[in-house]
Write a structure and sequence with these properties.
mainly alpha; about 50% helix
Length: about 140
């Protein structure tokens, strides 16, 4: 029986899905001061993000999403810290965990949209300055 062969793949078929590299600004756009309503850990995370290479790819139109992300992260942190299964009924525990899971999804979506995380940066075409070379490529090429 002869092997079935499919159509020859078009090397340009994925061209529409390729993402052009996003240029990084010399300096990040001016970010608002972290909210006094946020927990200290959230404020520190926000300041760290504002100084990151990823933030250098942002434009002013991204600021509402960034603010929302850190507001969600703060709420998530508060929900996790306040969760005490011993002091809550099953219904309250269920609702509490549901809220945490919902925020997990919302945070993950915003992180993806803003290029937070290595895979998200690659998907958006953000090339981070000073990125290390691929260890496998170094091994194979002897470099």
């Amino acid at each position: 029986m002869a092997a079935k062969t499919g159509p020859t793949p078009d090397p340009n078929a994925d061209a529409s899905r390729r993402v052009a590299a996003v240029p990084l600004r010399e300096k990040a756009i001016p970010m608002p001061v972290a909210s006094d309503d946020w927990l200290p850990g959230t404020r520190q995370d926000y300041r760290d993000y504002a100084r990151s290479d990823t933030a250098r790819a942002l434009s002013l139109e991204h600021l509402p999403q960034v603010w929302l992300l850190f507001t969600y992260r703060d709420l998530h942190r508060r929900l996790v810290e306040s969760f005490d299964p011993a002091e809550e009924s099953a219904d309250v525990r269920h609702k509490h965990l549901q809220d945490i899971r919902t925020l997990d999804g919302m945070i993950a979506r915003l992180c993806g949209e803003l290029g937070i995380g290595p895979l998200q940066r690659v998907r958006l075409g953000i090339k981070v300055a000073g990125a290390t070379r691929d260890p496998l490529r170094q091994f194979v090429t002897g470099g």
